[in-house]
Design brief:
468 residues; alpha/beta; 7-stranded mixed sheet; 13 strands; binds 6-O-phosphono-beta-D-fructofuranose; His_Pase_superF_clade-1; nucleotide-binding; ATP-binding; 6-phosphofructo-2-kinase domain-containing protein
Length: 468
């Protein structure tokens, strides 16, 4: 099958030659040099409470997983609250637990960090994952020095992300929207009491906080994200993963907005069950295009931009939208190229190329059509689109089934194995609204006869068989 294997997914495209060289460097696949390509990465969060560390960790994890790096977040707060420490979990509900003078609590916190670090090293050194995100405050030089030594011993490359924020509005909204719902407070106090306690917790951390400094360690690699991305300081970035992380962090924003996704209306090829091609819309497809324009006329989305593929069926679907939406046509949004199977039906493929049909059924994500693309290829070409979506406010994307599956898997945080099976019916529109730790999803389905939309709050489910 013309595809890459799972383990290859950890290697950035184009670096296979380097990988082969590295694989012979010693029995573990690593040499002494932590500048090798294949060294697993630990990303260490730094910052006072309520500075968005968990937000960054989760978002970064989702992005890295989508790009093919097996990534996991290790949240030390969760370790503190696990069964082993059950008796201490409740202490998190009192700011005094986080006082630098509380020696007993410090032991519990240090032990939780140690357990998280051990699990992280197992995850990386067993080959299960290639990136671990260590989500804790790590606000002292001592704590960071322990982490650096640990990573060195375990042959892991270490990168720090410090979130620095002195904007009271950002801190207040983080505490009010996220922290008062922390499991530390659940069922124990009111939101006002939780907020007051959390502010005291921050004060306790401030007493011992030592911001990252270049001079702190001879080979410190880090990025400081200042006031949720208003400015940055980047120091000694090493390797592909770290540079990707920096690129990502410099593009994301916190402003409220929505992303709308739709397939084109029904095309002539859709009506015949044929794949791909560049056919125009059918009568039903044209009805959908008209209804879509009406939808956005009523919805009045401020500053909406439209991104459309370069295929005729997509352009026709977008053609009645208001000209002030400034439609842009992206080649990257064109449908997955089915190569020698373009224009065939699924039955034709089964008859003419049964081996291809079987291979595709075995591993749909990695399967590449001869002279065409795989889903993995589409994810790669969509990365600039995702990055631009992260930078923008309200956007409507008019594209195709396979492409929108890739985009949705990113926002829904679905595993790559599920991605090719997300069920995206024709004549429906998905509205995604990113929240702190997840993305709200609303589906609007059009009844072509009545021209009425039905609205459901849910993620699109997985389908068993392909749709045309
Ligand atoms: O059938 C419509 C279509 O957009 C084709 O052009 C494309 O090849 C196919 O869907 C992708 O879906 P699947 O990967 O399930 O075959």
């Amino acid at each position: 099958m013309p595809s890459r294997t799972n383990s290859d997914m950890e290697i950035p495209p184009g670096l296979e030659t380097t990988k082969r060289k590295v694989a012979h460097s010693d029995e573990h696949g690593f040499s002494d040099d932590l500048d090798q390509v294949r060294v697993p990465n630990v990303i260490v969060m730094v910052g006072l409470p309520a500075r968005g560390k968990t937000y960054i960790s989760k978002k970064l994890c989702r992005y890295l997983k989508w790009t093919g790096f097996k990534t996991k977040v290790f949240n030390v707060g969760e370790y503190r609250r696990t069964d082993a420490n059950a008796a201490d979990a409740i202490h998190g509900a009192n700011a005094s637990f986080f006082s630098p003078d509380n020696a007993e609590a410090l032991k519990v916190r240090t032990e939780s960090a140690r357990r998280a670090m051990e699990d992280m090293a197992d995850y990386l050194n067993s080959g299960t994952g290639s990136v671990a995100i260590f989500d804790a405050t790590n606000t002292t030089k001592d704590r960071r020095s322990i982490i650096i030594d640990f990573c060195k011993k375990k042959r892991l490359r270490c990168f720090f992300i410090e979130s620095v924020c002195d904007d009271p509005a950002i801190i207040d909204s983080n505490v009010t929207d996220v922290k008062v719902n922390s499991p530390d407070y659940k069922g124990l106090m009111t939101a006002e009491q939780a907020k007051e306690d959390f502010m005291n917790r921050i004060e306790n951390y401030k007493r011992q906080y030592e911001p990252l400094e270049e001079s702190e360690h001879e080979s410190l690699s880090f990025i400081k994200v200042i006031n949720a991305g208003r400015s940055f300081k980047v120091h000694q970035v090493r390797g592909h993963v770290q540079s990707r992380v920096v690129y990502f962090l410099m593009n994301i924003h916190l402003l409220p907005r929505s992303i709308y996704l739709t397939r084109h209306g029904q095309s002539e090829y859709n009506a015949m069950g044929r794949l791909g091609g560049d056919s125009p819309l059918t009568e039903d497809g044209r009805k959908y295009a008209a209804a879509l324009a009406d939808f956005f006329e009523e919805e009045e989305v401020p500053g909406l931009r439209v991104w459309c593929s370069q295929k005729v069926r997509a352009a026709q679907t977008a053609q009645h939208l208001k000209p002030d939406f400034h439609t842009e046509y992206w080649k990257a949004l064109d449908e997955l190229d089915a190569g020698i199977c373009e224009g065939l039906t699924y039955e034709d493929i089964q008859q003419r190329y049964p081996k291809q049909a079987d291979d595709r059924a075995t591993d749909k994500y990695h399967y590449r059509y001869p002279s065409g693309e795989s889903y993995e290829d589409v994810v790669s070409r969509l990365e600039p689109v995702i990055m631009e979506l992260e930078r923008q406010a309200n956007v409507l994307v008019v594209s195709h089934q396979a492409v929108l599956r890739c985009v949705l898997a990113y926002f829904y945080d679905r595993p790559l194995s599920e991605l090719p099976y997300i069920d995206i019916p024709l004549h429906s529109l998905v509205k995604l609204t990113p929240r702190a730790y997840h993305c709200d999803s609303t589906i609007y389905a059009l009844d072509l006869d009545t021209q009425e939309w039905t609205e459901t709050s849910a993620q699109l489910p997985l389908c068993d068989s392909p749709r045309d």
